[in-house]
Design goal:
309 residues; alpha/beta; 12 helices
Length: 309
């Protein structure tokens, strides 16, 4: 379980928004800003520094990948949330990180004879009965594993934006097409969403390539740290390279920025998972365009501090 700073958690539930230079971070209350890039991001050269993505929602303070976590990210003032998509036994797409349900739900108690409790071995109806909040804190008891459609509807209601990860696609043949179908049915493949509010990523280069082939207009990202020599291969089908923060350097980030991605614009770098101020400032200094974090308030305060007078 993540450690939840009491002050941050209390501020979150009071609807806290970070104040900077006489204003606030963009929030659902005022609606998303109009970005210049197809992904809707103000990069490292922007006025407010790297874009901050709430990883699995504000998951330092609420159970990951639940509606509570994205609602909390909204109340903290963060537009961008990240999630993970997998598929149930009966073909429903659900938002959960692990390929098993054991860590973040009460599945072992609810279905003791069904180990190892893999997502793909349970129906959507069975998963809908599980408690996905009590493991994190009693105040979240009864939180559920959302379907992708439920998640998209809440992100839409909150006027947020989505960094969607297709998780372990090798376990779910055809999940790329199915994800795009749900996005389409939910209204997320119109021009506004595609240009400003949606990025699809995966650790699987093949999966990213499939998404790009099916919807060349979508902004895509590859999760990993390819060698500089291999970067041009990725630029053919993706727009971003999103690496673990310990694997990058200033020169590597510059090499990514020096290439044009699938949409003919300079490629971007969104790094993960950064939860402390010192590391946030370090990767900001490397020139990253975005920071993916469980504690978005901590990271935002750190990167904005560089602009304070």
């Amino acid at each position: 379980m993540y450690v939840r700073p009491a002050a941050a958690a209390a501020a979150a539930f009071l609807g806290f928004t970070l104040t900077v230079l006489g204003g606030t971070t963009s929030s659902a209350a005022t609606g998303p800003s109009s970005p210049a890039s197809p992904a809707g991001a103000t990069g490292a050269a922007g006025l407010l520094g790297p874009v901050v993505y709430a990883h699995r929602g504000a998951s330092a303070y609420a159970p990951e990948n639940t509606l509570d976590a994205i609602d909390l990210a909204m109340r903290l003032g963060f537009d961008w949330v990240e999630n993970d998509v997998q598929r149930t036994k009966d073909g429903e797409l659900v938002v959960v990180h692990d390929d098993t349900l054991a860590r973040t739900t009460d599945v072992e108690q609810a279905f003791p004879d069904r180990g190892p409790w893999r997502v793909k071995d349970f129906t959507a109806a069975e998963i809908a009965t599980l408690d996905a909040g009590s493991w994190f804190g009693e105040e979240f008891a009864g939180a559920r594993v959302p379907t992708l459609r439920e998640y998209l509807d809440r992100v839409q209601r909150n006027q947020q934006r989505l960094l969607l990860e297709i998780k372990k696609p090798e376990l779910y043949p055809g999940i790329e097409q199915e994800t795009l179908q749900v996005l389409d049915e939910a209204g997320w493949l119109d021009a506004d969403h595609v240009q400003r509010r949606l990025v699809v990523q995966s650790f699987s280069a093949d999966s990213v390539r499939i998404v790009h082939g099916l919807r060349p207009d979508l902004v895509t990202a590859f999760l990993g740290t390819p060698t500089v020599a291999d970067l041009p291969k990725y630029a053919e089908f993706t727009d971003r390279i999103n690496p673990w923060h310990t694997t990058i350097s200033t020169d590597w980030v510059a090499a990514v920025h020096g290439l044009l991605g699938a949409h003919g614009k300079a490629m971007e770098v969104d790094t993960w998972i950064v939860d402390d101020a010192a590391t946030a400032r370090k990767v900001q200094g490397m020139g990253v365009d975005g920071i993916i974090t469980n504690a978005p308030d901590v990271v935002q305060e750190a990167v904005l501090g560089a602009f304070a007078y």
